[in-house]
Amino acid sequence: MSFRELFDYLSTQPLLTLAVVAIFITTMGGMVKRSVPSLGRLMQGAGHLGLVAALLLTIVQVARFTTGNELAMPQLGMPAQQVEGLETRIPMSGNGHFWLQASVNGEPRHFLIDTGATLTAISEETAIAARVPQKSVRQVMNMRTANGTIRAELVTIEELRFGNIVARDLDAVIAPGLDDTNVIGMNLLSRLASWRVEGQTLILVPRPAQRAQPES
After folding, report:
1. Secondary structure (3-state) at 108
2. What 8-state DSSP symbol labels residue 134?
3. Helix 14-32 with 3-11: angle, nearest 10 deg
4. CB distance 60 to 73 below 8 Å
């Protein structure tokens, strides 16, 4: 990996960059401390503070995706979806995936966008909180996962809304074992006028009938 490639990668990983810089400053402080003790101790103290800050911000980032918190904190290195013109733009997160904040029947939830998933999938907890109704005639299908084949119930989401996009009467599955993770699959993406990835950004363009006012 060239220096330029390393720089480009670190520019998309602010928490990792903070940790690397903090470690570097701490190491340099230990070397400087031999000749200039006061400066060395100062550098080590700054490096330790940087490591603590990186740890705390990492904890906050994990909590953001596991507690249903609606707070978007781009200032802490957490990318937030934005509406620009007719597009909803979603920056890649630090883990290399595209996450967005959506509402399921008005209930706020985080979703992972997975182009390899045929159907949108929601957790049992999300289905209960969003009052997603079961079909009058229960329909169950087999789904292959990394942990084997599971039985998932087919449902219809009345409204899924995010950015400037609203999808109504969307087929989905309630997948056991998802915990509080939800997945947007190709059955939603295929409804859009277009979607594409440019660099580190996923760009979604709705059809006129799917356009909604951006969520506050």
Report:
1. strand
2. P
3. 120
4. yes
Cα separation of the two ends of the chain: 41
| Contact of 123 with 179, CB cutoff 8 Å | yes
Q: Give strand pairing partners of 7.
A: none
| Confidence at 1, pLDDT banded by 50, 70, 90 | low
Residue with tokens 């809304």: 161
The Cα–Cα gap between 86 and 84 comes to: 6
Per DSSP (E only), the strands in 25-97 are: 82-84, 87-91
Cβ–Cβ under 8 Å, residues 121 and 155? no
Write the CA distances from 139 to 25, 142, 151, 171, integer angstroms: 59, 10, 10, 12
16: tokens are: 């990792």
Mean pLDDT for 98-121 is: 90
What are residue 111's DSSP bridge partners?
100
Residue 14 has which token pair? 């602010």
Element (H, E) at 41: helix 37-64
The reported pTM is 0.58
What does the block give as tokens for 58?
């990492």
Which of 31, 51, 49, 48 shows the shortest CA–CA distance to 40? 31
Q: Are 168 and 211 in contact (CB under 8 A)?
A: no
